[in-house]
Request: fold
Amino acid sequence: MKQVAGDRILLFVKTPIKGRVKSRLASAVGEEGALDLYRDFVLDILGTLQAEGLAFRICYAPPDSGPALISWLGPGHQYRAQEGKDLGERMKNAFSSVFLEGIERAILIGSDIPDLPGSVIRDAFTVLESKDAVLGPAADGGYYLIGFRSGAFLPQAFDGIPWGTDAVLRCTLDILEKGGRSVRLLPVWNDLDTSQDLEAFFARNHGGLPGSRTLSAVKSLLRQKPGSAEHHRTRAGKKAPFDHE
Reply:
């Protein structure tokens, strides 16, 4: 399905600041390693959106980091600061804002799903031709994508959600059902939060994903993982990624 002018993707991004992105990954690869990986995540998902010709808005946090983000990614995108005291409020406000502008269908995705195919995003817009909402379940019990038709938007879907737990998807579906919204689920996908997620990412992509910055970086990290031949060749006394595990 071809995206139309009344469609928009809301890409939630954290401006890459050392010590403030991917804290769980940082425990495995260090703050600098996590920062570099997150930059790769963002560039890869941006590359997918651009290659697919999909219209998107970069919604960034923290709200005072716009100049730094624009300096990194360039002025050729549409930017908007995330507004709200927590994730739910920021997501709710992003949808409310875009629908007030006259957008008919909007989909929100995060920036830690660097191998999400453009076809999945297009399928989400197709779902919204007949359903009120669409959700992409994550393997950890959350979701990597949520979308609404403007007339069916339900702000309460972001209220009282136990963010960061395995109950996120279930609670959201309950709210949508109680609100009388029709919903369809997309295939399960994995975001990248832990070293185990990196290994799963490599396992499903090592034979493909040409041009992926993330795949190249993960491949390099896993070569240094304890137990690998590359790790045993690591210089004595030098700490390699995943040494704590």
The longest strand covers residues 7-14.
